[in-house]
Automatic annotation (TrEMBL):
Record protein name field: AzlC family ABC transporter permease
Source organism per UniProt: Paracoccus caeni
Origin: domain of life: Bacteria
Keyword NAD part of the UniProt annotation: no
Membrane-spanning intervals of the chain: 12-30, 63-80, 129-150, 162-179, 186-211
Primary location group: membrane
Organism lineage: Bacteria, Pseudomonadati, Pseudomonadota, Alphaproteobacteria, Rhodobacterales
GO BP of this protein: L-valine transmembrane transport
Family, per entry: Belongs to the AzlC family.
Length: 232
């Protein structure tokens, strides 16, 4: 139980960005023509902010259902990378626990959990799952509630209140503490540059190009560092 509460407490700083981000989704989704039940269906069943915004934007543009699904899946493919990196820590958890982790895995719960596991490698499986659960509850429940608030009272929010600041700040807060090696820095730099270069590609495809380029750059720098270490 202590690990659960520890995860919740460490998640609290993200509330600064999760709450307005979720409200922004509720506002944007209702403006796109979705009713409150559909908005909540997105936030409860999909539970993936970037994919939710992508889907709503494409719906607003009258894209076909196939394009909406494929584009949202493409944006959310990073979750596959998150899942792979969590296997050494949570791969031996019970099937029900793994299903829970798969459902509640978001950018923030991943970032907090993987850093915690790396700092405390001797945690038991129960402690690892409990910590993840604490982060997930603290982050996902407010997301759902504030999505509902945005959909309900969104029209009453003045236009000069810029809720869209939440997304970039969230990712900066997550990524910055994890850039600990030259390989991390190289991967981040290449991914950013590639994302900017390919930003004009449709349906978020630029991210699909930028992500593997960043990973390849990081892998190359890490291999080079290992060779240099062997030589010296």
């Amino acid at each position: 139980m202590q690990a659960f509460w520890h995860g919740m407490v460490q998640s609290l700083p993200f509330m600064i960005v999760i709450l307005p981000f979720a409200m922004l989704f509720g506002v944007v989704a209702t403006e796109a023509g979705l009713d409150i039940a559909q908005v909540m269906g997105f936030s409860v069943l999909v539970l993936a902010g970037a994919s939710q915004f992508t889907a709503v934007q494409l719906i607003s543009d009258h894209a076909s259902a196939v394009i909406v699904l494929l584009s949202s899946l493409a944006v959310n493919l990073r979750m596959a990378m998150y899942s792979a990196s969590l296997v050494p820590w949570l791969g031996k958890a019970k099937p029900g626990q793994r299903a829970w982790v798969a459902y509640a895995l978001i950018d923030q719960s991943y970032a907090l959990s993987i850093q915690h596991y790396e700092r405390h490698p001797r945690l038991s499986m129960a402690q690892r799952v409990a910590y993840f659960s604490g982060t997930a509850v603290a982050l996902c429940v407010p997301w759902m509630i504030c999505s509902w608030l945005g959909a309900t009272i969104g029209k009453a929010i003045p236009d000069d209140i810029a809720l869209d600041f939440a997304m970039p700040i969230t990712f900066i807060a997550m990524i910055a503490p994890m850039l600990r090696t030259p390989a991390h820095m190289a991967a981040c730099f290449v991914a950013i540059v590639a994302a900017l270069i390919f930003a004009g590609l449709p349906s978020g495809l630029g991210l699909l190009v930028a992500a593997p380029l960043g990973m390849a750059a990081g892998a190359m720098v890490e291999m080079w560092a290992e060779k240099q270490g062997q030589v010296t």
